Amino acid sequence: MSTVTYSFGRKYSFLLLAIILSFVLFLAGCGNQSSKEASKDSNGTEQTEQKEETESVREITHAMGTTTIKGTPKKIVTLYQGATDVAVALGVKPVGVVESWLEQPMYNYLKEDLKGVQIVGQEIQPNLEEIAKLKPDLIIASKLRHEEIYEQLSQIAPTVSHETVFEFKGTVELMGKAMNQEEKANKLISDWDNRVADFQSKIKEKMGDNWPLHASVLNFREDHARIYVTGFAGSILSELGFEGPKNLPDENQDILKVTDKESISQMNADVFYTFMEDNEAVKKSYNEWTSHPLWKNLDAVKANQVYTVDEIIWNMGGGIKAANLMLDDVYNRFELEK
Known about the structure:
The chain is an alpha/beta fold. It has helices at residues 2-55, 81-89, 108-111, 128-133, 143-146, 150-156, 168-178, 182-207, 231-240, 280-290, 293-296, 299-302, 311-316, 320-333, and strands spanning 57-62, 65-70, 76-78, 96-99, 118-122, 125-126, 138-142, 159-162, 215-220, 225-228, 255-258, 271-276, 306-308.
């Protein structure tokens, strides 16, 4: 009787031990599996983050070469007026801007959007020390203005440069890429192109066979006058469908300086858009030019199509916002519905 009991006890003990060992092995297996899955998830997340980081690194080709930019820049410094204008149009408030040419320290049409922004010198002479203090992660420059200090700017932060300062669509495209705002930039250009097409359709309907008109953008200075053949306003008028001055000696010039009043005929066009600084010396010069007998023989003068325009909007602003304000002005002068 005791032998049977002992045998049964031994069998029971072995069975219990086997069950415990199986359970332990089962738990160990689960732990290993969880560890593998956790490791897999960790690696997967790490790979995703690395991929996103890689995708956010962009090579931007511009007038001064190629610049590498990581992620979406948050602290931007703009070193010419058109770039400041475009930053605002893209919904970005720069941390630093250069002083405006007129209406210092910044143009009135941008002032509300630029409250509290640091001024970092002048467009032709930015203050590198002040820029560095702001610790920007992107600088927008112009080869025309900043070629000689490009390397110094690049040592402060990634810097991209446009060729010039007045080609506002080029500035929009460059800044859209550099700021990782391409979708917004494309929308700005698309909206502009739609407005241009709308204007062209309405002006042709209104003017009929009298369209296109020849237009001259004239700027009067103390000792000479200027015809802006291209530039900001001239380029926009050309895009709208206007033709340039009728008697240009060289149509390849961007700006024609006229110093001799006997050469007034070079200004001739169907419509004049004029601007000048508000000071007595310039007013005296303007009166001398416009009282000359040759001035009275110009087509725009005889047709009473001489208009004074806002110099900030038509010449100084240089960006997409200024371009749209200029286009508003042209719509209004032809009494077209915007």
